[in-house]
Amino acid sequence: MLRVEGELDTTRADLRDREVKLAQARDRTSELEAKLADFEDQILRAYQKLRNDDKIVDKAKRALAVALTLLDDRARPRRRPQPEHSCPPQRARPTRGS
Question: What is each CA distance from 70 to 16, 77, 95, in whole angstroms?
Fold first, then answer.
């Protein structure tokens, strides 16, 4: 009978140890789930920032394309059609701010 009681005490002690370990594992799981949720939020914010940055880059590319087009147009000399009758060339009028 003493032997059975000893085994019962040992089994109870093992059970208590396992319950403690289980509680610790549950706590650790909760901590990890909270960290996971934080990381998911960080990833979502980073993705949204990348998408926003892509939109900004696209707008900048379009603006640069327009600017380059304007610069190209200004760099090309414009030819004026020659009048059919001969007249002396007219002097250019000064523009505002000149």
Answer: 81, 13, 20
